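Lay summary. Proteins are chains of building blocks that fold into shapes, and those shapes determine what they do. In this project we predict the shape from the chain. Here is one chain we studied, written as its sequence of building blocks.
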Amino acid sequence: MDYNTIMERLDRIENSVEFSSGEILQQRGTTVGRWIGFLYGVVAALFLINVI
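And here is the predicted shape, written in a compact code that computers can read:
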């Protein structure tokens, strides 16, 4: 194998790893965002219950 072939294979592997890690981080972000929204809702509901 020559240098260019090896570099092309490494570039494809790098793109695959970047895509996979991006998908994982996006899923984690969605989960964290969902929990933050849930907690804001609980706090707002408790605030309204105490005011009324």
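What the prediction tells us: The mean pLDDT is 94.
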